[in-house]
Each structure stands twice: as C-alpha cells, then as structure tokens.
Amino acid sequence: MQPIYLTYLNRHDIEAAALSDAEILAAIEASLGMQGRGETVIEPRVHLEPKAGVEGHFNVLRGWIGGEIDAAGVKVVGDFVDNYKQGLPSEFGILNLFDPRTGMPTAIMDASGITDMRTGAVTAVGAKYLARKGSKTLGHIGARGTAYWNVRLLDSLFDFETIRVHSRRPESRNAFAEKLSRDLGKEVIATDDWRSCVEDADIVVEASRLSAPQPMLKTEWIKPGAFVVPYGTMSAVELSLTDIMSKMVVDDWGQCKGGKFGSLRAHVEAGKLSEATLHAELGQIVAGLKPGREKDAETILFWHRGLSLSDIALGHAILKKAAGMGAGHRLRYA
C-alpha cells in the first residue's frame, strides 16, 4: 500500500487562510443551494452528555456534500457553558473530512472558528432571503463566538444604522460591543436588558446561553415585518412566538423535529411547528424551489440547528485556500 497522508489545519492555519466575508457567505450559500436540490446527505446530529453536574455536552454532526467538494465529514464540538470561568471559549471542535469513495481520511481541522463563521453565515444567508431589504436595526442577544459572526456578516449585507447587543454579564456585552465597533467602524450599543435590545428591531437574533429554558424574549416585543432568528441551545422564547409568524423556516427539518435541545423544542412538541406549519427549509428557498420573503409585512422566523454541510463546505473552502498559501501540516496516516 502506498503511504497515505492527510492535512491538519490548526487554528493559526485557519486564521492565516483569512477567508473574506464574501468568501464565507458564498461557500455557505452554495452548500444550502445544493441541499435544496438534493445533492447532499444529512444525518441528524446526536448528543453526548458525558458527566452529570457539568453544564455541557458534545454535538456530533455528520454529512456528505457533492459537486466539486465531494466530501464526507464528521464534526464533534463540545458546548460547555461555564468555560468562561476558566478563561476558555465555550466551544471546542474538530472537523474530519473523508473521501466518500474510499473512506480515506483527507483532513483534520480545528472547527471552533469554522463553527462560529458558518453559524453566522447561515444566519446572514437566511436574512438575505427572509428579512426586509431595507432592514436598518439589528437587535442581538448573546456575545459568544457565533454571535460575532452573526453581527459581522449581517452588517456586511445590510449596513445597519443601529446595532444593539445584550448578554447576561456586563463585562461580556460591553467587550463585545467594543470589539464590534472597532471591527465594523460604527457604533454598537450594549443594552442592559433584553427588551431595549430587541424591541422594534428589523432583525432579531437570539443566541443566548441559558442553562435551562426560560421565556426571556417576549413575543410582544417583535414588530410586524421583523425577521427573527432564535437558535439558543435552551429555549428563551415564549410559546406564543410562532403564533405571530407569517412563515417559519428551518435549516433541516430532520434534525429540528427531534432531540432534547433547541430553542423551539417546546413548539415542536406542542405541534405549533410541524411539517404542516413549516414553510420551507432554507436550502429549498436558496435553490429557488420555494419563495422566501414575498411582502414587507410578513413576520418571518428562521430556526437553524446547525448543518454538517455548512462545516464541510466552509472547511473545504479554507482547506483549498490554505493549500494555495502553503499553510497547514501534512501528516502521515498509514
């Protein structure tokens, strides 16, 4: 047997690749379109809760994406809420890519940054198709890594006049607002409470870090015509939120309809979000198979659990760009 090698990209290699906002969005939008056309395979994510008394769990995402990428992938990402107490990010991840014809491993990549970027990109692509074109005010709950990319990539599309952010800890939300202000070149306001952050916003993103479900985001704060994206692991919305929606969209119904986690889990269990009430998966809209926003007056909800396809597509784009720069490490497998 000939020697087998794979590529390893650590966090520094991924940062060196420095994908632009446009490159990130293009990779994710293309993968969503492929999903809508049936050119992918998604297995619903599974969870591992390894230890009682620890606020955290592992997510395992699996999938295959065709086209010029033609790669299978598995991502394992730990989600541990209390990591900040040790000065650590809440999420650590590894993405493994494989040749789908032989099963041979082709790459191992740090997936922490990939997770943040692809999550923000899915939020932004959702807004591209589902938010009002003239949206000027963003209200964002949460300040973790995915939150940064939500705001940055949304602003790259909408150039907001007002950006408001909130998170539970003052030091967290203030630092988040300061970083965004520097990077975006505009004022970002850190609010002291949920209501002043999201009320009357054109786009509302809820990426909170609750340890247990709690209805912190009130339905009455959502203005008609808004685009709302709740995706916290634990529900932070009222059961009535879905009642005001003109359309409800998800990234993948297969993984939204099952499992114990997710911001709209109670809505699924109550029958408020079902195959009958679901408008579409985002990939169907991107592929042109179903309409996105059709009227300014529509109030639209988008719930994304996180797609393995997004990790694979973005991982492939980073791998390709890193190779062109000579970044990464060649490891012998066999």
TrEMBL record:
GO terms for cellular component: cytoplasm. SUPFAM superfamilies: NAD(P)-binding Rossmann-fold domains. This is Ornithine cyclodeaminase family protein. PANTHER family: KETIMINE REDUCTASE MU-CRYSTALLIN (PTHR13812:SF19). Belongs to the ornithine cyclodeaminase/mu-crystallin family. It comes from the Bacteria.
